[in-house]
Amino acid sequence: MLDKLQEKYGLTSFTLKMIGIVLMVADHTHEMFSYVGAPDWLNMLGRIVAPIFLFLAAEGFHYTHSRVGYLRNLLIGFWITNVVIMILQQALPNDHVVMINSIFGTLFLTIIAMWTWDSLKHPKQEPKRFAWGLLGLAFLVFGPVLALTLLNAASASQNMFLIILSSSVIPTALTVEGGIGWILLGLVFHIFRDKRWIGLTIFVIFSLFLLWQSAMHGFSDYQWMMIFATPLLALYNGKQGRKDKWFFYIFYPTHIAVLYIISTVFFAH
């Protein structure tokens, strides 16, 4: 039955990405304008975004011609976004808005996790690849330790360079958007790429766990609403659709800058 639905209503990776981008803009609109009354439903819509991009990252990892190039582009996107945020916050301070957006860092670590998983599968048959897998695992495990050490040192010494280094230069599970939860979710999508129903089942269970946690705290956290990404991911038909390699890399920091400038110049007092 799912095959028939995918054939009739199937979504390409391009369509999924565009849906994610529209919902992301809604979410960031809430982030930038909540202090002047932007409705919470914009934030609720935004909960669907992360699983879409993590799912597409697993697809991109499978199809890319250069995994090194993929990682490089994500890291550069991470740096550029952080530089844009730092410049804006210095040039146009806005006490009402705290920008912590950096999905590129999350996707970078998720791709490393996928690569590490694949590299550790056959230690005897592929020892060189296994060694690279161990290096990736070390980065994922000890990166947060390094970041925490630098943050503690920065707090003690008020060293701005260490603060920037620990949060804006080296992506770690401790400092990127979504943290270890999103990285593991992306890895699940990769591991069960050929058995999507298993990956989506795990995703739904995780979302229901977040719902239970939210219920324990008066439903103040909307992250469980990412469960509504499930039908969109289920309808993915495995096709790329229109090519747009660089659009997201350009659009992401640009839309954050535009929304922040509008929020600060026209609404902050």
Polypeptide structure, described:
The chain crosses the membrane at residues 9-26, 41-58, 70-92, 98-118, 130-154, 160-185, 197-216, 222-239, 246-268. Keywords: Membrane, Transmembrane, Transmembrane helix. InterPro entries: TraX. The protein is mainly α and 269 residues long. It has one domain (1-268). Helices cover 72% and strands 0% of the residues. It has 12 helices and no strands. The protein has helices spanning 2-9, 13-33, 40-46, 49-63, 67-91, 103-119, 127-157, 160-169, 179-191, 196-216, 230-234, 247-266. Helix 2 packs parallel to helix 12 (247-266), helix 6 packs antiparallel against helix 7 and helix 7 packs antiparallel against helix 8. The chain is globular and about 60 Å long.
Main sheet: strands, sense, barrel? none
Distance between the termini: 55 Å
Mean pLDDT: 90
Low-confidence stretches: none
Radius of gyration: 19 Å
* Coarse structural class: mainly alpha
How many domain modules?
1
How many strands?
A: 0
Multimeric state of these chains? single chain
